[in-house]
Amino acid sequence: MAALAKTCFFETEASDRMIAVLGRKSAEERIAYLLLHLMGRIAEQTVIRGNRYPLPLRQQHIADAVGLTSVHVSRILGVFRDRGIADLSSGVLEVLNRDELARLGSLT
Q1: Given strand 92-95, what is the order of strands in its sheet?
Q2: Rounded to two decimals, what is the model's pTM?
Q3: Distance CA 42, CA 55 (A)
Q4: E strands, the chain, where?
Q5: Model confidence over 70-83: pLDDT tens digits?
Q6: Which residue in 46, 50, 36, 55 sits closest to 102, CA to CA?
Q7: Domain count for the chain
Q8: CATH number for the domain including 21?
Q9: Who contacts 93 (Cβ-Cβ below 8 Å, separation ≥6)?
Q10: Are 43 and 75 in contact (CB under 8 A)?
Q11: What is the pLDDT of residues 9-43, one digit of tens each?
């Protein structure tokens, strides 16, 4: 029972943070926050080598999660790639500059 309560608490906390991100942050910041959140969850479940994370999401999934269009997500992911922050292709997220991604995705 304690494990269930703990899980509910953490999921509620994560939902509250996502609501704050959606209401307060720019498109770049929303996507960066989501990628960081997913990276953390993936790292809990699997061994990550280097800065490559399996992320089999389509741009539409990301768009739905952060309240943007898939075209806008595509544009932002292109900006991330061009600026050397992150590259999402073929179901793999490669983080090229974790510090900059963390700066963009921070809640402060």
Answers
A1: 52-54, 92-95, 86-89
A2: 0.79
A3: 8
A4: 52-54, 86-89, 92-95
A5: 999 999 999 999 99
A6: 36
A7: 1
A8: 2.60.120.10
A9: 35, 38, 39, 52, 53, 54, 55, 86, 87
A10: no
A11: 666 766 666 665 555 689 999 999 999 989 988 88
